[in-house]
Amino acid sequence: MISNGIEDEDKWLAEGIAGIQHNAFYLHRALDSDNLREALKYAALLLSELRTSKLSPHKYYELYMRAFDELRRLEVFFKDEDRHGCPVVDLYELVQHAGNILPRLYLLCTVGSVYIKSKEAPAKDVLKDLVEMCRSVQHPIRGLFLRSYLAQISRDKLPDIGSEYEGDGDTVMDAVEFVLQNFTEMNKLWVRMQHQGPLREKDKLEKERNELRDLVGKNLHVLSQIEGIDLELYRDTVLPRVLEQIVNCKDELAQYYLMDCIIQVFPDEYHLQTLEILLGACPQLQPTVDLKTVLSQLMERLSNYASSSPELLPEFLQVEAFSKLSNAIGKVIEAQVDMPIVGVITLYVSLLTFTLRVHPDRLDYVDQVLGSCVKKLSGIPKLEDSKATKQVVALLSAPLDKYDDIVTALTLSNYPRVMDHLDAGTNKIMAMVIIKSIMKNKTFVSTSDKVEVLFELIKGLIKDLEGISTDELDEEDFHEEQNSVACLMHMLYNDDPDEMLKIICTVWKHITAGGQKRLSFTVPPLVFSALKLVRRLQGQDGDVAGEEVPATPKKIFQLLNQIIESLTVVPSPELALRLYLQCAEAANDCELEPVAYEFFTQAFVLYEEEVADSKAQVTAIHLIIGTLQRMNIFGVENRDTLTHKATGYSAKLLKKPDQCRAVYACSHLFWVDEPDGVKDGERALLCLKRSLRIANAAQQMANVTRGSSGPVTLFVEILNKYLYFFEKGNPQITGSVIQGLVELIKTEMQSDSTTANHASDAFFTSTLRYIHFQKQKDGPMGEKYGSIKL
């Protein structure tokens, strides 16, 4: 059926064009022979083709343009009185004898254009006559195109300021009156179109009306081009008359389009000065009109106008633009009770954008907009509409983008209240946006109160929200979120130690509510923040009793002990052990021996009871040895206890090579190359001898199990340790001891049971080369190495 209708239209259009072309042929002949009577006859026949009511606006436009081209040619003929010999006044009367009303009016408008140009009659009289007579055509499509033709031919003949048609009683008001009258009549025709067909064709009629809207809007464009319309005339006459027509037409399509036209075609300065009048019409429009788009465009234009020049800001304050827009939005939302929540939020996003661009210094305005949004959202538990959610994210992101400073956003009391209305997933997205803003702008949050507000904003990342648990999350996303929180903790800083301690306590309070799974991500950065504070307070001490005691290292270490202890429930013993060792090192720097000893005790307890994996044990024991080696606070008894434990655990590792390496590492615990370091050469040598025995046992075990004893790498590593202590002046390690070890390695390498290994061979060769290099040196080092015979 649809395809048949299109085919019929094409056929009717083709017939109409054929009729125009046929009559145009005779019209041209009449014009060429200067025959007025014949020209009028064929012009009327040609224009009769426009009387059809079978075509859609799109097809009718094609037909109209064919006729329009011919009318332009006819107008040129009418202008030249020498060719047709008829005065323009008589011609104006003559064309009114055409048989049909539509051709008669097209001809009358064409002659009227010539009549105004001749100045034989006042322009306002001719224009008034034409606009009144066009009322005779009440068919919507035919009437709209006729009046569009009238607007087209008259736009350069209006009695405007500076126009050649001004004067002799013709004023700007006459031009305004003509355009407004033509606009009013066209709008009535356009609105009436919706009642022209059966209900089942409503969509088709809407489509056709949309195609014709520019014909009506063109009048407003013509009005905006009239030079004589100043602010006073616009405010007192033009805008009220246009708005009256828009409100009274009670048509959704017309009201939306024409409001949009007003905003687009008239100057921003006029909008600012007539804001109250323009906004006053909005609540009177039909409830279904898309006012959110109209008002958003108005606010965008005003924002651009404000940012074009700083001098304009007093004008915005003078007319109270913000309060007028805010009140208007409130009234529109009340009037349009069925407006979806996404529309409401979109309006507030536009108002907030306007506020941030025009009044960036007025945080009370920003908070007021957010507060208004909270009121509208208060009846809704959680947003489920994805478009509405997206708009809330835009609302919350706007202050962050504008101020580049989360601290500003933290002062807005309604900011977290808006976030509460987001669903769990979007809450987390917004939390990530906040963290990224802080990291990008390197913003430090410097008080515990602000940290409290910040962590309330990002609570979606630091604890499970209703309806979502960590078990349901994608592992990769969860890691990314928690790493972001960890990065954020390094941006919480205050130079005042007491305030910094409050910040650390506030963060600790929040992350304890985050569940076990998050602790392994959030505890380490918090521990390191506290350790930074400890380093700043190094050398201070004090009684830790009471709540209001200033921050001291002891007090912080007590808190650190609690924080790290929380990792035992995760469980994450390896991480806890590393953190205990970091704290022990900090306690050493603060010269707090009992505290350092306690942290080492905790590390050893974890090692004994929790670290079961053999690889993890190897890593842990090396960390313990390395940290213990740097400690200089311990007395003889405490140090002996700890080194004894470390060497004991080293010898108990599962694999012989691991035992060997851990035991020779323990040798550094007995010889520390610092002025006041431990220098127990005998015990260092004992460790090296013990590691040699373990290496030998490893070789024999390999020989029994594989039939070959494996590479000599362990022996070469031990040789390098001997060389280190030899150079550092350990009296127990002599050239002859090193020489004996070199001989042992050579013997092992030549043994049939030893597996050839290029890496260990190269390692041994490099070591020998180093010994030769040292022997050739002048001075004490050369002499020392001279005792080694290779």
UniProtKB/TrEMBL annotation:
Compartments, record wording: Cytoplasm; Endosome membrane; Golgi apparatus, trans-Golgi network membrane; Prevacuolar compartment membrane
Main location group: cytoplasm
Topology versus the membrane: Peripheral membrane protein
Coiled coil: none
Entry GO CC: cytosol; endosome membrane; Golgi apparatus; late endosome; retromer complex; retromer, cargo-selective complex
Keyword Transport in record: yes
PANTHER family noted in UniProt: VACUOLAR PROTEIN SORTING-ASSOCIATED PROTEIN 35B, VACUOLAR SORTING PROTEIN 35
Family: Belongs to the VPS35 family.
Name of the protein described by the UniProt record: Vacuolar protein sorting-associated protein 35
